[in-house]
Amino acid sequence: MIRSINTLLVPIPTIRAHKLACTVMNEQVLVLVHIQTEDGYEGWGEATTIGGLSYAEESPHSIKTNIDTYFTPLLMKEKPTSTAKAMQLLSTHISGNRFAKCAIETALLDIEGKRLNLPISELIGGRVRDCIEVAWTLASGNTDTDIAEAHQMIEKRRHRIFKLKIGSNPILDDVAHVLAIKQALPDCRITVDVNQAWTELEAMKGISLLQDGGVDLIEQPVSMRNKSALKRLAEHFDVAIMADEVVQDPYNAFQLAADHCADVFAVKINQAGGLKAACLIGQMAHLAGIELYGGTMLEGPIGTAASAHVFSTYPSLNFDTELFGPLLLIEDILAQPLDYQNFGLTIPTGAGLGIEVDNDKVYHYARQANLSSSNPISLGTYVSDSHTGV
Ligand SMILES: O=C(O)C[C@H]1C=CC(=O)O1
Ligand SMILES: [Mn+2]
């Protein structure tokens, strides 16, 4: 039986500015859910998003408000006796709010795993791999800085796949930036994420130049609203085209898979609405012959561990993952950091998420952020962006 549900906003600075087409991040606001049960178990979940409301439809504050106002009273009143029943209850009474649902499901699975002494991977289908390769995003905004950062990552054997965030500069400038990095790192896989910034016509031009320059993967080049453009681009080019923002819950992923709108799906547990939903999307994509990529909303270690459990169950993961979120933050909130080495992340083997959250640290940071009104939580720097019509 659930005794308490606490939702905490925990802002942590990033190691450097992280520039996307829709926002510039100097800190990440972790949205953490802590559930405690009457019989002494506790579980953690995470509903972190990117840049306030600039990336997705739920903001850190809306997630906290909605969990406190709607999710918690419902769960406390109905007292579901399993994670599956709790999620069924939430899906019946609460529409949308996929990030919030993901955090609740994660915390409940963490508890269920601890109760059964099994890692979450074994509760959601069973792992078929114990380690996953992790790409790093170069997004300092400067080509030479990005190249130097990539060399450091290779030297430390942390990453050898690099994703570049483009779309906020003129196309030819972005292409020149990407190709300079590709030439400096000829043995590395280089991918680009346009975060919806191009029109179809711009994408035709940009992708053609990137494909000729040897780029390996193009992520969400056009608006998520224009699924047919994404499909046309995937059909037109040999280079792999990946759907990201457009891949949401299993219903919409089903349509995308059935229409074969992209060569690869980036799956994110928060965008999907939870771990089981993300498993379902992975299975559907696989059945439709679509490749899989383990995506991130730049979560801290809780959401990252949860994602790793999900991706460990995928039948194939040919485009690897980008679960580097915790490494972008200056502080860790775990007693023992996640195990990144040899270009990969080891999937935790302990019960539940298999991690130990430093509760004192997390509650301390959350209190500090709430008390200090002169230091409000930053929600990213607004970047004017024409593709979303704002
Ligand atoms: O993929 C996205 O759009 C979001 C995120 C993932 C890595 C990164 O740098 O940003
Ligand atoms: Mn993306």
UniProtKB/TrEMBL annotation:
It comes from the Bacteria. Pathway: Aromatic compound metabolism. Belongs to the mandelate racemase/muconate lactonizing enzyme family. Pfam families: MR_MLE_C, MR_MLE_N. CDD domains: MLE. This is Muconate cycloisomerase. Residues 144-240 form the Mandelate racemase/muconate lactonizing enzyme C-terminal domain. PANTHER family: O-SUCCINYLBENZOATE SYNTHASE, O-SUCCINYLBENZOATE SYNTHASE-RELATED. InterPro entries: Chloromuconate_cycloisomerase, Enolase-like_C_sf, Enolase-like_N, Enolase_C-like, Mandel_Rmase/mucon_lact_enz_CS, Mandelate_racemase_C, Mandelate_racemase_N_dom. Its cofactor is Mn(2+). PROSITE patterns: MR_MLE_1, MR_MLE_2. The keyword Isomerase applies. Keywords: Aromatic hydrocarbons catabolism, Isomerase, Manganese, Metal-binding.
